[in-house]
Amino acid sequence: MSKARIATVWLDGCSGCHMSLLDLDEALIDLAPKVEIVYGPLVDAQEFPEAVDVTLVEGAVSSQDDLRLAQTVRARSRLVVALGDCAVTANVPSMRNQIPTKTLLERIYVDGVNVNHRVPTDGVPPLLRQACPLHEVIRVDLHVPGCPPPAAIIGYVLGELLAGRKPELAGKVKFG
Amino acid sequence: MGTTIRIHHVTRIEGHARIDIHLNEQGQVASTQFHVTQVRGFEKFTEGRPFYEMPAVTARICGICPVSHLLASAKACDAIMAVQIPEAARLLRELLHCAQFVQSHALSFFHLSAPDLLLGFDSGPEARNVLGLIEKHPEAARDGIALRRFGQQAIERLAGERVHPAWVVPGGVNKPLSVDTRDLILADLPLAHSILRRTLRLFKSMLDSFPEESEAFGNMPTMHAGLTDADGRLQIYDGMVRFIDADGKPAGRIARPLEYSKWIGEAALPDSYLKAPYFKPRGYPDGIYRVGPLARLNVAETCGTSEADRELLEYRQRLGRVVNRSFFYHYARLIEALYALERMEELLHMPEILDRHVRAEAGVNALEGAGIIEAPRGVLIHHYRVDERGAITGANLIVATGHNNLAISRSIQQVAERFVEGGSIREGALNRVSAVVRAYDPCLSCSTHAFGRPAFRLRLIGPAGAVLDER
Q: Which chain A residue shows the shortest CA-CA distance from B108?
């Protein structure tokens, strides 16, 4: 049996969902022969590859880079899972949404420093006006809320998807 | 014309960064840039919110070390309430923090850096990750998973959840420790301990395998900063931040948390969302300093626990009293994890840790407060101002990876000069450029609270500015 091609993506989030994935602990060892992680912060791929079976996306869409990557993920993945509250609702990253980005950046880089008072622009992606949930920019096949979703839920979702079934999440997950 | 190499995604780090390596016309490395590419704005959007929400909100800066933010934030809130928290609460917070050090250091060493150290910097990038480790070095992978699990489980047992628990509150913690929970954690300690002893032996046996890396990975004199108690013992939850010179001479100390701004300035960088703190008396950028495991062991006289102190002695016999080579962050990290385990055992055996009184109650008694702790990656500072009703009017956060920003940039330059040659890009060379960043275990999640996720990317740029190659 060929290994399932899994990718994990970290947009605007805290990586807590990735930590919850690692909280599978020894179950990772059982998973290892069945999957290949072809992209994500835990592996060394530089480009998001073609023909990915399942992509787990953590985080809200906050910058131009996030937006582009989300679109690439959709184009190259069979199934896209919004993993955790930030991907599902934009959660904490959206707390900045009422503040104009210029005001936000000037607070940090002009008022908030002692030297070089200027907003960075070289080699850094512009922020979107608002941080938004993943489903606002691409089609999402499954939403898994939680801050973060517990490891057991992530294990269950992966197990069902690898077995070709749709995970039944009603009553199993909650926000926060 | 010159050339730029871009590492698009610096991988196996906790965040997203991009690196540009500029070559001159002779194909030699002219300069490098470390771009951190995310900004989140916690310092701004928390304005107007009640101060007692800050621990839960700022914990969402980082899922890797949420406990660090919980603790620094809660300490800043304690200061706003002007309370001295109950002794049991102080001990429990430190215990939780020790558990976090174990899990976070295990993650850095095993899940993120061991693929380089055990599989090889030049091994195939497809398998150079934790799954590759499971396949090729199953014992080491199992040890890493079990050690991280120990820390995460202890956090879960104490605080209810592994990631983003709600147990730490302004004034203390919200539930005392039960005898059963204490005994569960104590029962698991010996296994964690034996893993760490084994791992230290393994790492020490490999020291001679990386002569070039240990020489060229951020080998430079800088100042160091870390928390100690009055006797110079390593501290992670509370103490005084001390600055030393590259040769160990004392350079300054933050006696009270609110005085941090007398010693630490911040500079904005044109090409990164991550600001660059510097030691204020020396100005920017001469005031470069390092924080984290390497710096802490340089600053501290002793760890204060017996086995860690034996290891520290050996470490200093091998490397000198002040270690200025960033490759040895890995070594220092393992000694600290051992310290954290020993300290957990000490704390769990203190009868007063079971005291039922674990929370001080108060309203706003001071309009300003700061909390400083050692996150696994280094000094973490939360500073809040509030109005009389307790609404935040100003917040400033200086995180571990920020302090290391200048040192990381300089280390990248050094590794690039040593390993990258013009014309073609060798994958293993670029991986070393990424690996020096990994040695610092940068939490770009944390550092991008205000700033960015570094997308770890590499780009080769010619003198005329054309992008010659991208990875």
A: A42
Q: Residue A152 belongs to what domain range?
A: 4-96+129-162
Q: Would you list the DSSP string of B292-303?
A: SHHHHHHH-SB-
Q: Name the residue of chain A whose CA is nearest to B113's CA.
A: A42
CATH number at residue A54: 3.40.50.700
Smallest Cβ–Cβ distance between A44 and the set B41, B63, B128 belongs to B128
pLDDT (tens digit per residue) in B32-70: 998 887 778 898 999 999 999 999 999 998 888 899 999
Q: How many helices (H) and strands (E) does chain A have?
A: 6, 7
Running along chain B, 471 residues long, what does each successive block of 10 average in pLDDT? 78 80 87 84 93 95 92 98 98 98 95 93 90 94 97 97 95 98 98 97 94 92 98 97 98 96 94 92 96 98 98 98 97 98 98 98 98 96 97 93 91 90 76 88 60 45 65 53
Of A65, A95, A114, the CB nearest to B45: A95
pTM of the model: 0.93
Chain-centroid distance of CA B342 in Å reads 20
Is A92 domain-assigned? yes
Nearest to A147 among B9, B164, B445 (CB): B164
Write out residues 175-234 of B within 8 Å (CB-CB) of A.
Answer: none
List % helix, strand, coil for chain B (3-state, nearest 5): 45, 20, 30
Q: How many helices (H) and strands (E) does chain B have?
A: 17, 16
Domain tally, chain A: 1
User: Are A92 and B60 inside 8 Å of each other by CB?
Assistant: yes
Check A113 against B141: CB less than 8 A apart.
no
